[in-house]
Give the backbone structure.
Amino acid sequence: DEPTTALDVTIQAQVLDVLKDLQKKRNTSLMLITHDLSIVMHMADEIYVMYCGKIVERAKTRDLFKNPLHPYTMGLLGSVARIDDERGRFVQIPSSLPSPINKPSGCYFHPRCQYATEKCKEYMPPLETLENGRCVRCWNYKEIEHGKRG
């Protein structure tokens, strides 16, 4: 479970600093499982985003926060308040998480995804490794990426 759950911000920062110090001193990896994106931003070199038990995106922290490729990752990042967003808008991911014992067919995220196609409803996309080492599990990430730029 998360090492900082239910801790106030000051104690949370101290615990995270201790973990980071141990990681450096012992020259080891540290795996954190958390939903707190501020902790992820502060602690992680690389991020694995999961939805319903499947990895949907993997990237270096900076790359993921700057340019998310999976619609679920976009929704997660859009749900966090940002200082540089003068409008103070939050983006809510529609609907609710499916039951773990009754997951949808195809891509598990398709019932909540604004980019879902028939292919998404029928087939689970593979976790595709891109040239830069990032991974994404989405049939439509190229079109979505193109739409964000164009």
